């Protein structure tokens, strides 16, 4: 790497740090997880410039989430009632939320890799559904039968169902005038303000 490339490399690494912090989830995972996640994000995000359609994007997304559930564990936690909640593998819901928030920061907020490419990628992004959003969706669409009570318990199949519920809510309330990344901004604001 030349000294001329270094500012861009450092900017990329700083964006990853900011995006990971923005997910507010690093406290949920074992010590050392942030560095492992950042390294995997570097390789996954590097593939975005070559995305040529939905299938290609979904493959990158799925591969990141698969890696995440196989390599990242939750931190052991002492609950208020003094009971110990043991460490366990991260869920697909947690993996999806982390990747979706990072993608939102990179593509939607920072227009990575450039404005033209980010505009092409924007419709492909998934909503970064959190537990409050999931509970809200379950009230709108109880027939979809999501058993998980928290994002920590969301399986891959429930994750797919949640994204379909998001798309249905976009159609029902927003008349398909927004993308899932906009939906999660709106819903996060509504449910947390």
In words, what does this structure look like?
- The chain is mainly alpha-helical and 193 residues long.
- It has two domains: 1-123, no CATH class; 126-193, no CATH class.
- 61% of the residues lie in helices and 2% in strands.
- The chain contains eight helices and two strands.
- It has helices spanning 6-23, 33-46, 54-71, 92-109, 115-121, 131-140, 156-174, 180-192; strands at 77-78, 84-85.
- The protein has a two-stranded antiparallel ribbon.
- Helix 1 packs across helix 2.
Strand content: under 5%
Largest sheet: 2 strands, antiparallel
Number of helices: 8
Computed structural class: mainly alpha
Number-wise, the strands total 2
The Cα radius of gyration reads: 17 Å
Mean pLDDT: 92
The low-confidence runs, each spanning 5 or more residues with pLDDT under 50, are: none
- Helical content stands at 55-70%
Order of helices and strands: HHHEEHHHHH
Shape: globular
Distance between the termini: 45 Å
Strand order of the largest sheet: 1-2
Oligomer: single chain
Number of spatially distinct domains: 2
């Amino acid at each position: 790497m030349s000294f001329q490339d270094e500012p861009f490399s450092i900017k990329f690494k700083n964006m990853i740090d900011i995006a990971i912090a923005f997910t507010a989830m690093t406290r949920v995972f074992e010590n050392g997880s942030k560095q492992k996640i950042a390294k995997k994000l570097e390789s996954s995000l590097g593939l975005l410039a070559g995305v040529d359609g939905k299938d290609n994007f979904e493959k990158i997304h799925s591969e990141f989430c698969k890696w995440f559930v196989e390599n990242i564990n939750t931190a052991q936690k002492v609950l208020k009632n003094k009971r110990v909640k043991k460490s366990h593998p991260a869920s697909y819901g947690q993996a999806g939320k982390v990747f979706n928030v990072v993608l939102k920061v990179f593509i939607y907020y920072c227009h990575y890799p450039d404005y033209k490419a980010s505009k092409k990628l924007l419709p492909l992004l998934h909503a970064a559904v959190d537990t409050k959003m999931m509970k809200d969706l379950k009230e709108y669409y109880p027939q979809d039968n999501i058993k998980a009570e928290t994002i920590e318990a969301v399986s891959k199949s429930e994750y797919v169902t949640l994204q379909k519920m998001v798309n249905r809510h976009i159609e029902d309330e927003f008349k398909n005038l927004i993308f899932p990344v906009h939906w999660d901004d709106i819903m996060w604001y509504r449910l947390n303000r």
